[in-house]
From TrEMBL:
Protein name: OmpA family protein
Translocase found in the keyword field: no
Chief localization: membrane
Compartments, record wording: Cell outer membrane
SUPFAM superfamilies in the cross-refs: Cna protein B-type domain, DPP6 N-terminal domain-like, OmpA-like
Length: 619
């Protein structure tokens, strides 16, 4: 894990070219920069990997590439890569996947356009090295982690990022400026020659928990050579901290770290990659009993944890703040909050937005809820070194404008990216009733103003020779939600698959044991009708299929009914019946997966097989 040296050596190998310039070496070069959060260099090499080996890239590397794109501010391209990542990761029908991607893109647009209601400042105690993980010791002191070292002799270096090892420091809070001053090393009983970081204190300040490397007389490594992190506990006796001891849920086989006590000291939240984790690192909790022992760790579940990294929890009793790169965000680690209710548990997470979050790593957020002031760390541009600690205070707006709710955006052509002036954009309510419409300006832009607070609308974009585009958008109070729309030409729905020319819609799905056209299917069939009206010589045949449930003969009967109901719908929309040569059901004879009754399948798997397809016989 000496990533700094690894990156240099890989680059030397790549310069020699030939067999050295392999997929494996390019990937490891990019990964080395990624793990040190050097997103500019990570992007440079992931981009080389993508251009040369795009189809062979794993979902893991596509995810890292997308994050390096965010980390360098290339949000539009990052969105496209996240769509590719989602396709590889999510086992869901295409229409459902499209909705998920659309929701993520809308969420990112909302974050980018959120109000900047924080004032942040870089602190005087920051150094050229890594300074992070602040925690309140009391009302006028903060303990934090730093790689600075005041030794006059050569400083020992941590090979991961070529920085000195971390120690804990304590500093006083300047009440007026919220800055930290007079930083001194914390207790000698706690700081060692290896890493110490991420501390939390009990309500009476008599007990502390912190993170340290797993070591005895020397560093301990597992069978893969990895030195894991562990949580240690120290108590205060006669105003001195005692020798720290491990907590019971540590292990030599996985890491535990980033401890965070609840305000009453009865729950200890922490981060781990232990068995039972949903992703790379998850947030867990244990109860702290009266005698100081702990219950079995409990995973906080999929509301908080993703398949990626969740880190640096801070819990104030009513809200959990933490950092993650698994939710929609601005790049790297972003800070999120989740409201907590004793009966309901943790609510859906929210991104704190700019300026707390940036396109780099933003983490270890703590806040005093009474005065809305606190601290967090970031390795964003403009800092003094690697990770820096920032203070923040939340600004209170004196006046709230009567109504600045708006939805704005730009309409472009999907393939070329050209702007589309004079495209018709309609605003529909939740029942699909048209409220307003306008044509885009010469620069392709549009705006709908004076809209209701926190209300969901549908944006429908209509243009001859293009597929109608619909986007769900929710207004933000006294803000403009930005939604850019890319329109697809009708001719791009015509595709060749396995040598067969088809009109490609999203899958036309049917409910179990039903042949009636669902509303979502009707929208897709309307696109097909538009293609057939645009190309009046096209003749098609309709093929319908069922899942494997029910008898074979009944499924052939049911699929035939579905084919004919699909044909009837197309004809009802003004297409000549002679242009549909046949409408045939094939039952369960052409399954798209292994759901043939030999093994259990989910409803989503069966749904994939209940579909209609449209074969072009004549153009």
């Amino acid at each position: 894990m000496w990533y700094t040296e690894a990156a240099d050596l890989y680059e030397q190998a790549l310069e020699k070219g030939g067999k050295n310039r392999s997929k494996d070496v390019i990937q490891k070069t990019a990964d080395s920069y990624y793990f040190n959060t050097n997103m500019e260099k990570a992007y440079e090499w992931y981009n080389v990997l993508y251009e040369n080996y795009g189809k062979e890239m794993s979902s893991e590397n596509i995810f890292k590439y997308a994050h390096s794109l965010k980390g360098t501010g290339k949000y539009a391209r990052s969105k496209r890569l996240m769509r590719l990542y989602n396709k590889k990761m999510k086992d869901a029908p295409a229409s459902e996947l499209a909705n998920n991607v659309q929701e993520n893109e809308t969420a990112l647009d909302n974050i980018l356009n959120s109000k900047k209601d924080f004032e942040i400042k870089n602190l005087a105690v920051n150094t050229e090295y890594s300074d992070f993980s602040p925690m309140f010791l009391d009302s006028n002191q903060v303990v934090f982690s730093s790689a600075k070292d005041s030794s006059f002799f050569n400083t020992r270096r941590y090979k991961w990022n070529d920085q000195p090892y971390l120690d804990l420091y304590v500093a006083k809070v300047n009440e007026e400026s919220n800055d930290l001053k007079n930083a001194l090393k914390f207790s000698k009983k706690i700081n060692t020659k290896y890493h110490e970081a991420s501390v939390t204190f009990s309500p009476d300040n008599s007990t502390m928990y912190f993170t340290r490397n797993n070591y005895g007389k020397k560093l301990k490594r597992d069978d893969k050579g990895i030195n894991h992190l562990k949580i240690y506990k120290s108590t205060k006796v006669d105003n001195e901290w005692t020798e720290a001891v491990e907590v019971s849920f540590n292990s030599d086989d996985y890491s535990t770290g980033h401890p965070a006590l609840s305000p009453d000291g009865k729950q200890l939240y922490f981060v781990s990659d232990m068995p039972g984790s949903l992703g790379k690192t998850d947030i867990f909790v244990v109860d702290v009993t009266e005698d100081g022992s702990f219950t079995e760790p409990r995973n906080l579940g999929p509301t908080i944890n993703t398949e990626q990294r969740e880190m640096f929890p801070f819990f104030n009793g009513t809200k959990m703040y933490f950092s993650s790169d698994g939710f929609t965000g601005l790049g790297g680690l972003d800070v999120y909050e989740s409201a907590f209710d004793a009966e309901e548990g943790f609510a859906e997470v929210k991104n704190l937005g700019q300026p707390v979050n940036s396109n780099k790593d933003d983490f270890s957020y703590i806040v005093n809820e009474e005065n809305q002031q606190g601290y967090f760390a970031s390795n964003r541009e403009g800092g003094k070194g690697d990770d820096d600690i920032y203070s923040f205070k939340r600004l209170i707006l004196e006046e709230v404008p009567e109504n600045n709710n708006a939805i704005a955006g730009v309409v472009t052509e999907m393939v070329t990216g050209d702007i589309m002036p004079q495209a018709l954009v309609q605003l529909l309510d939740e029942n699909g009733i048209k409220l307003k419409e306008m044509s885009t300006e010469d620069d392709g832009s549009f705006i709908f103003e004076d809209l209701n607070d926190s209300t969901q609308y549908t944006l429908k974009t209509v243009e001859p020779k293009f597929i109608d585009n619909e986007r769900l958008v929710t207004t933000t109070v006294n803000d403009t939600v930005k939604v850019d729309i890319a329109m697809k030409r009708l001719e791009e729905m015509i595709a060749i698959e396995d040598g067969i020319k088809k009109i490609k819609t999203e899958m036309i799905y049917f409910n179990f044991d039903k042949a009636s056209i669902r509303p979502d299917a009707a929208k897709e069939l309307d696109k097909l009708v538009s293609v057939m009206k645009e190309f009046p010589t096209i003749v098609i045949k309709v093929e319908s299929h069922t899942d494997s449930r029910g008898t074979k003969s009944y499924n052939e009967y049911l699929s035939d009914k579905r084919a004919k109901s699909t044909r009837d719908y197309i004809i009802s929309q003004g297409i000549d019946a002679n242009r549909i040569e046949s409408a045939t059901g094939y039952g369960e004879n052409r399954l798209l997966n292994d759901c043939n009754g030999s093994s259990p399948c989910s409803e989503a798997d069966h749904l994939l097989n209940r579909r209609s397809e449209f074969i072009i016989l004549n153009m």
